[in-house]
Design a protein that fits this description.
This protein is of the alpha/beta class and 321 residues long. The protein has ten helices and twelve strands. It has helices spanning 4-31, 58-72, 87-96, 119-128, 148-155, 173-184, 195-200, 231-245, 254-264, 306-319, and strands at 47-53, 76-81, 101-104, 133-137, 141-143, 160-163, 171-172, 213-214, 217-224, 270-272, 277-280, 293-296. α1 (4-31) runs parallel beside α10 (306-319) and α2 crosses α10. The N and C termini lie far apart (61 Å).
């Protein structure tokens, strides 16, 4: 017999799915105005901006890339096709960003890490970061104001990440672990809870964890300093986590854990100031209007029409160039 909790989750999925499809259709219609804005020209300055893009996220990505390019004025763009981009999609990308490099996800070597879940994006970053400063930019980002902190990080070759709340710091991993255990207890490895929560309370199982640092941040907008890590670091971390968590390490979100670990343990890394750089959760107490960069995620993405409204606003700004 199906449990009430399962029925409730199924109902929420149906309700949110229908709402999301309608709102996405409305957003995509408005976002097509991005085609009338100036093309983005590449800058051969040693900075690479990497995104994983799917067919359904094409219009969001163009708004994300063009709004970021407007305020950043540096770098060249690399898109990883998750396998769903059509020939028409790729033609539009090349028309709007003429020097864009489009890589096929299947062409990115991945022998030691989970398949999918953004791991190929991180491995792609590891291939570029030896000789470039690399910025990861999710398709559902929006840049709406000047970004001096990003330009400073690139100039100083300093890694950065978008934090989740005000006042965050990069801490010793043992301190982060202690805080999580005191709040939630030590979760069993086989719990049905999100793997992120399981990881947070089981960091002590990582060999030498007392020698590492950690932070809880977003995997959708971050910068990797040139030479800050190599592919072998990614593969070693993933293999060590597989030894601890087994098949659960294949769950969605483990790439974000790896990103947080790599940035926390790189030299001179910083967490971007919140809420100037923030994830949009439709919280009325947060000044999203004054933010420089926003990340529109999950069930909050289309709430209150804010994402669509800000996208239309930035498209008008770009059109006036």
């Amino acid at each position: 017999m199906i449990k009430k909790e399962q029925l409730h989750r199924f109902w929420l999925w149906l309700r949110w799915g229908s709402y999301n499809r309608v709102k996405r259709f409305s957003f995509d219609r408005a976002a097509r105005g991005i085609l009338k804005t100036p093309r983005v020209r590449a800058k051969d300055d040693g900075c690479v901006i990497v995104s994983l893009v799917s067919h359904r996220d094409l219009w969001m990505y163009l708004v994300s890339a063009k709004s970021f390019a407007h305020f950043f004025q540096q770098g060249r763009f690399v898109v990883i096709n998750d396998g769903s981009l059509t020939e028409g999609d790729m033609r539009i990308l090349r028309e709007q960003i003429p020097e864009i490099e489009i890589k096929q996800i299947g062409d990115i070597s991945n022998t030691c890490c989970p398949k999918g879940g953004c791991w190929e994006r991180l491995l792609c970053v590891s291939d570029y970061v030896k000789d470039h400063y690399v910025i990861v930019l999710d398709a559902d980002m929006l840049t709406q104001r000047e970004i001096p902190e990003i330009k400073c990080c690139v100039q100083q070759n300093q890694s950065f990440i978008m934090g989740l709340k005000r006042g965050q710091n990069i801490q010793p991993m043992k301190d982060v672990w202690g805080e999580e255990v005191s709040l939630h207890g030590k979760l069993p490895l086989d719990t049905v809870d999100r793997l992120q929560n399981v990881f947070d309370t089981n960091m002590d199982m990582i060999r030498g964890f007392e020698n590492f640092k950690y932070l809880k941040g977003s995997g959708g907008f971050n910068g990797f300093a040139k030479g800050s890590f190599v592919r072998a670091d990614v593969e070693k971390f993933s293999q060590s986590m597989t030894a601890v968590f087994g098949k659960r390490w294949n769950d969605w979100g483990t790439e974000q854990i790896a990103v947080c670990f790599l940035i926390a343990n790189s030299q001179k890394a910083c967490i971007l100031p919140y809420p100037k750089y923030a994830i949009y959760y439709a919280n009325s107490k947060v000044d999203y209007m004054g933010a420089s960069v926003l990340h529109f995620v999950g069930m909050s993405r289309f709430k209150n029409g804010f994402y669509k409204g800000r996208a239309v606003k930035i498209i008008r700004i770009l059109s006036s160039e």
